[in-house]
Amino acid sequence: MADHAPATYELVEVKAEDIMAERTSFYDGFLKGTTWGIGLTVGILVLLAIFVV
Questions:
Q1: What are the residue boundaries of the Cytochrome c oxidase subunit IV bacterial aa3 type domain, all occurrences included (predicted)?
Q2: Which of 5, 21, 26, 50 has the fewest CB atoms lying closer than 10 Å?
């Protein structure tokens, strides 16, 4: 087996301010995608009601 030097890790404190911008952008993208998905579903249902019924 290869000899390895003991690994040393430096743990850094993660604060809420560091990750809130990333989480907020993910949430905004989720809301935008949900809005488009609901709108597309309603549009398809309306088209089905017009052309099928």
A1: 27-51
A2: 5
Q: Which backbone phi and psi does 40 adopt, to 5 degrees?
A: -65, -40
Closest CA to 15 of 4, 23, 7: 23
CB under 8 A, 24+ apart: contacts of 4-13:
none
Tell me how far apart the terminal alpha carbons of the chain are, to the nearest angstrom: 73
Element containing residue 40 per DSSP (H, E): helix 16-51
